[in-house]
């Protein structure tokens, strides 16, 4: 899956669920995917309440369920900065 396809998939998921009330940014090795508090998605590199640094490949694994988030954190494949509580809300989005 390309970066653009992944952005479109996250856009569809965010539109279906609405916003989480806080902004989240996925900082990948290819670019950023920013989800605003009201659920709008862009590729802006804006400041977010929670930033998740992950490779594009590992983000795809997380979204498909092939990669466990806790395992990814333990092995350094996933780094979270900002509000950890917001990262926990992602299960509601995905």
Automatic annotation (TrEMBL):
Name of protein: SCP2 sterol-binding domain-containing protein
Pfam families: SCP2 (PF02036)
PANTHER family: SCP2 STEROL-BINDING DOMAIN-CONTAINING PROTEIN 1, STEROL CARRIER PROTEIN 2 SCP-2 FAMILY PROTEIN
Upper lineage: Bacteria, Pseudomonadati, Bacteroidota, Cytophagia, Cytophagales
All copies of domain SCP2, residue ranges: 35-94
InterPro entries noted in UniProt: SCP2_sterol-bd_dom, SCP2_sterol-bd_dom_sf
